[in-house]
């Protein structure tokens, strides 16, 4: 079931065939020191959240209003379009029609998390796991909430449980790697980031995370390769540019480091590691 959230769906009929479709989650944002919050976010697929597709899904709902699957997939589309209230309503209707629809609980939990309603989100993940204790997606989602709340032992237990279930979701390894990193276990973190990369080589976050751990082990060359790769995959993330600044600073190239930190601060003026980096390297700006 968990792989189906990556399926590209072109029509309402294709959506409805997949009961286990869940809201895809992007990787987690990294701070230069790996201490900042890292939130799941709905991966926007314009085709799935488009008004045309929503119209098709609404027609499917109207044609069979007692089918919970149609509400679940329309809820996913609403979530991807950013209409959280309608997404919540559809997932709730799906659950009313089928109280054992654990995927709908997990989908609703992810949207609740997007709305910073973490208590309600955890309750939904708990309910999904009561129904299906082997649902790796729910362990990963709940683990992320625990990790952001600094409940690291509980987060680690959830990520470990997903991994023990042989999850194919790279977020379990990536997020466990972040916890290892926070604990100073950088070699274990690198192993987990590498596993996440092997599962999805196009996700930038594990490259950035691995770069930080390489840098902590004074492996500056590999750190540079990884952070450059992260920026190539997504050049709009302030934390990636700040991490590049750290790598350049470690190399002694403070002028280039300043430019990276400054770019990070331009992307996110409130990003503290970028502001700190600018302050440290400002005197080298003209070098």
From TrEMBL:
<feature type="repeat" description="TPR">
    <location>
        <begin position="136"/>
        <end position="169"/>
    </location>
</feature>
<dbReference type="Pfam" id="PF07719">
    <property type="entry name" value="TPR_2"/>
</dbReference>
<keyword id="KW-0732">Signal</keyword>
<dbReference type="Pfam" id="PF13414">
    <property type="entry name" value="TPR_11"/>
</dbReference>
<dbReference type="InterPro" id="IPR013105">
    <property type="entry name" value="TPR_2"/>
</dbReference>
<feature type="signal peptide">
    <location>
        <begin position="1"/>
        <end position="24"/>
    </location>
</feature>
<dbReference type="InterPro" id="IPR019734">
    <property type="entry name" value="TPR_rpt"/>
</dbReference>
<dbReference type="InterPro" id="IPR050498">
    <property type="entry name" value="Ycf3"/>
</dbReference>
<keyword id="KW-0802">TPR repeat</keyword>
<dbReference type="InterPro" id="IPR011990">
    <property type="entry name" value="TPR-like_helical_dom_sf"/>
</dbReference>
<keyword id="KW-0808">Transferase</keyword>
<feature type="repeat" description="TPR">
    <location>
        <begin position="238"/>
        <end position="271"/>
    </location>
</feature>
<protein>
    <submittedName>
        <fullName>GlcNAc transferase</fullName>
    </submittedName>
</protein>
<feature type="repeat" description="TPR">
    <location>
        <begin position="68"/>
        <end position="101"/>
    </location>
</feature>
<dbReference type="Pfam" id="PF13432">
    <property type="entry name" value="TPR_16"/>
</dbReference>
<feature type="repeat" description="TPR">
    <location>
        <begin position="170"/>
        <end position="203"/>
    </location>
</feature>
<feature type="repeat" description="TPR">
    <location>
        <begin position="102"/>
        <end position="135"/>
    </location>
</feature>
<dbReference type="GO" id="GO:0016740">
    <property type="term" value="F:transferase activity"/>
</dbReference>
<keyword id="KW-0677">Repeat</keyword>
């Amino acid at each position: 079931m968990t792989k189906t959230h990556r399926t590209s769906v072109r029509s309402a009929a294709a959506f409805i065939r997949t009961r286990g479709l869940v809201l895809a989650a992007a990787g987690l944002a990294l701070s230069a020191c790996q201490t900042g919050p890292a939130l799941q976010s709905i991966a926007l697929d314009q085709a799935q959240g488009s008004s045309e597709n929503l119209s098709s899904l609404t027609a499917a709902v109207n044609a069979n209003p007692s089918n919970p699957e149609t509400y679940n997939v329309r809820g996913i589309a609403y979530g991807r379009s950013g209409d959280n209230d309608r997404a919540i309503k559809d997932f709730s209707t799906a659950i009313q029609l089928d109280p054992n629809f654990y995927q709908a609980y997990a989908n609703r939990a992810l949207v609740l998390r997007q709305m910073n309603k973490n208590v309600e989100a955890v309750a939904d993940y708990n309910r999904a796991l009561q129904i299906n204790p082997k649902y790796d997606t729910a362990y990963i989602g709940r683990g992320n909430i625990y990790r952001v709340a600094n409940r690291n032992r509980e987060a680690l237990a959830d990520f470990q449980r997903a991994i023990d279930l042989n999850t194919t979701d790279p977020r379990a390894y990536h997020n466990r790697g972040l916890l290892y990193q926070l604990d100073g276990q950088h070699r274990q973190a690198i192993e987990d980031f590498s596993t996440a990369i092997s599962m999805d080589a196009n996700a930038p976050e594990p490259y950035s995370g691995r770069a930080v751990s390489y840098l902590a082990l004074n492996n500056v060359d590999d750190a540079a390769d990884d952070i450059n790769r992260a920026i190539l995959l997504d050049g709009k993330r302030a934390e990636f540019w700040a991490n590049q600044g750290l790598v350049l600073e470690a190399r002694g190239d403070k002028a280039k480091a300043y430019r990276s930190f400054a770019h990070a601060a331009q992307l996110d003026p409130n990003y503290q590691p970028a502001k700190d980096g600018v302050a440290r390297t400002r005197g080298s700006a003209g070098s």
